[in-house]
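Thread amino acids onto this structure.
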């Protein structure tokens, strides 16, 4: 059982080890997701850019999950990064649609 959990943890972490901008966005920033909901590819954009689909409402550092955004007013989604080895690289980005 432990082996399965470790292998699953590796693949979960690996999913977010991409060369996109998900770790660079902060509250007030906007971004485009050119990937999918399961495998996002985040590109930070100026909020007036028509490709800027989403606006970051809050970034929560530490051991969090997408449920951390459930109490962020206006939040319609979350991006999460979990690094079991480094809590400083674990966070959730709470966002909403940038289109009015």
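Threaded sequence (100 positions):
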């Amino acid at each position: 059982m432990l082996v399965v959990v470790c292998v699953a943890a590796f693949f979960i972490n690996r999913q977010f080890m991409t060369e996109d901008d998900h770790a660079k966005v902060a509250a007030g920033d906007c971004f485009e997701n050119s990937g999918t909901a399961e495998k996002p590819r985040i590109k930070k954009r100026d909020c007036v850019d028509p490709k800027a689909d989403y606006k970051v409402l809050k970034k929560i550092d530490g051991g969090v999950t997408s449920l951390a955004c459930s109490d962020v007013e206006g939040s319609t989604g979350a991006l999460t990064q979990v690094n079991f080895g480094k809590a400083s690289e674990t966070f959730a980005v709470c966002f909403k649609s940038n289109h009015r």
